Amino acid sequence: MDRVFIEGLEIEALIGIYDWERRIRQTLVFDLEMGFDNRVPAASDDIADTLNYKAVSRRLVEYVSQSDFGLVETLAERCVAIVLAEFDVAHVRLKLSKPGAVRGAKAVGVIVERTRAG
Ligand SMILES: Nc1nc2c(c(=O)[nH]1)N=C([C@H](O)[C@@H](O)CO)CN2
């Protein structure tokens, strides 16, 4: 299956389990891979036939900017649910990184892969 990807999408959010984290906004980084048959837009050369990565990015920015969760797991799960429900995507892989959250690590976070049911 072909894929459409979004790499290094930075979004500020209220996220974390500690008191100090509840008082600040932190930058999260989103890397997505979405299963999509790119042969149709390749044949038509029409943006309407694509999985529009700009539209997906905008939707995630809108959602994540307003979100408020303790765990990156929760936010990642909600984001993949939105992508599967609102876009013509059968499969999505999301790497959600929280840079600087652990001293000595460039980033920490989660990777989730979900396939649309049915
Ligand atoms: N698996 C997880 N571990 C941790 C999380 C998390 O969301 N998922 N969060 C924290 C803290 O919020 C941390 O990011 C602050 O530095 C710790 N572990």
TrEMBL record:
* This protein's UniProt keywords: Folate biosynthesis, Lyase
Can you tell which superkingdom this protein's organism belongs to? Bacteria
Q: What EC number(s) is this enzyme filed under?
A: 4.1.2.25
Question: Which CDD domains would you find in this protein's record?
Answer: DHNA_DHNTPE (cd00534)
Pathway assignment reads: Cofactor biosynthesis; tetrahydrofolate biosynthesis; 2-amino-4-hydroxy-6-hydroxymethyl-7,8-dihydropteridine diphosphate from 7,8-dihydroneopterin triphosphate: step 3/4
What reactions does this protein catalyze? Answer: 7,8-dihydroneopterin = 6-hydroxymethyl-7,8-dihydropterin + glycolaldehyde
Among Pfam families, the record links this protein to: FolB (PF02152)
Query: InterPro entries, alphabetically?
Result: Dihydroneopterin_aldolase, FolB_dom, GTP-CH-I_C/QueF
Please list the GO terms describing molecular function: dihydroneopterin aldolase activity
- Where is coiled-coil annotated? none
Q: What does this protein do?
A: Catalyzes the conversion of 7,8-dihydroneopterin to 6-hydroxymethyl-7,8-dihydropterin.
For this chain, the family text in UniProt reads: Belongs to the DHNA family.
What name appears for this protein in its UniProt entry?
A: 7,8-dihydroneopterin aldolase
Species per Swiss-Prot/TrEMBL record: Luteimonas rhizosphaericola
